[in-house]
Amino acid sequence: MPDLFSPFTLKGVTLRNRIVMSPMTMYRSVDGKMSDFHVMLMGSRAAGGFGLVFPEQIAITPDGRTSTGCAGIYDDAQMEGLTRVTTIIKDMGAVAAIQLGHTGRKGSEKKPWHGKTQLPPDDPDGWQVRAPSPLIYGGRYTYPVQELSVAEIHDIHRAYAAAAKRALDCGFEWLEMHFAHGYLGASFFSPLANQRSDQYGGSLDNRLRFHREALDAVRAVWPERLPLTMRLAADDFNAAGIQFDDAVWAIGAMRQHGLDFADISLGMNTDAMKDVPFNQVAFMVDRAARVRREVQIPVGVSWNLGIPQVADRVIREQLIDLVFLGRPALANPHWPVWAARELGQNDPFALVPEDWAWWIRSRPGPEGSLGWPPVAR
């Protein structure tokens, strides 16, 4: 029976455990380039014991960013910073993962601590947002949306493929496509955002066409030995939007187009969501378990899994295969070590690099002298 610290193998890649640092946008990039900050952030989490480490969502085009402070992979000049990130992740014993995305109509934002409101297209830090239909999201997203032409959709698919090629050259070994959270892929899938009358709109099969063609474009350049995965909008929590049954069908359909793993998340194609259990522990696990059972594909989720006993239980019960941690990973760079101590693992410090582990294990002194709180009983 697996547990939180069991290795996990997918295709030709083996993770040392089931703990993933989920992509978290940090707004620290300049011209889409990663810096020493990102090397520090990702390297410390890899050194802290995470098995799979993602930087933030990486934009495939300039207008695919959330803000001008977000990272991209649409220019060769951005590859040096990304390569430094993959190098440190691997040096610290983890696998380097990349999440490719395009924010669609939820782009052109101010940084969150500056209000996270949308900027107009003529602002120096803004741009014209694009989506499947010219529907303004609403709320803090107030500016007109340009409907993508079929030719522009094909350009975006080519941008996904070009980004995947660069990701491979930068040393990433796990690729996830971000088609959730109201971003471009999610908006194609949801009738709340997609009201097209051509081959990319209308029926469920047509609304999934964007995903299938994007997968095909990436699979053509991404090696078969490396995992190709997707974060999918699985539920809009709105009667007029994506329903979970739609997502189960879609993941099964995408398996036929090279999908190796499903990261199940929310649609977020509207702020008018109903009965979302945001305060409930592990609230996406049951949905993911259904996908795992019915589609026969490995799955992972985030959302309120930062309690070690809960994270370990959902792996032991084989409900999901990987635990994604966002805010817990930012709050505690050594979350896996802390979890191992809480769960009574024989050698929690085996998760950190050998030179660090030697010093920590050999430290004499009373309990607490290392600065760790007592283990919860």
Q: How are the SSEs placed, and which strands pair?
A:
Blueprint: E1 8-10, E2 13-15, E3 19-21, H1 36-47, E4 52-53, E5 57-59, H2 79-91, E6 95-101, E7 130-131, E8 146-147, H3 150-170, E9 174-179, H4 184-189, H5 204-207, H6 209-219, E10 228-233, H7 244-255, E11 261-265, H8 285-295, E12 299-301, H9 308-316, E13 322-325, H10 327-331, H11 335-342, H12 354-361
Parallel strand pairs: 3-4, 3-13, 4-6, 5-6, 6-9, 7-8, 9-10, 10-11, 11-12, 12-13
Antiparallel strand pairs: 1-2
Structure description:
By secondary structure, the protein is α/β, with parallel strands linked by helices. The chain has one domain (8-361): TIM Barrel (Alpha-Beta Barrel), CATH 3.20.20. The protein is 32% helix and 13% strand. Strands 3-4-6-9-10-11-12-13 form an 8-stranded parallel β-barrel, surrounded by 5 helices. Strands 1-2 form a two-stranded antiparallel ribbon.
Summary?
The protein has 377 residues and is α/β, with parallel strands linked by helices. 32% of the residues lie in helices and 13% in strands.
